[in-house]
Amino acid sequence: CTCYHPNGVIWININAVDGLYLDEQGTRVKRWCWRDHLSPLLFAPFKPIFLSLNENIGVRILEQEQISITFLAMGKQAKFKVGAKLKLKKVSNEFLTNPWITEDELLLQDSQLKVRTAINKLCIALNFPNSPKTIPLPLYLVSQQQKLSQLYASIKMEESTEDENGT
Question: What's the pLDDT tens digit per position in 20-47?
Answer without folding.
Answer: 888 888 888 888 777 665 555 555 566 8
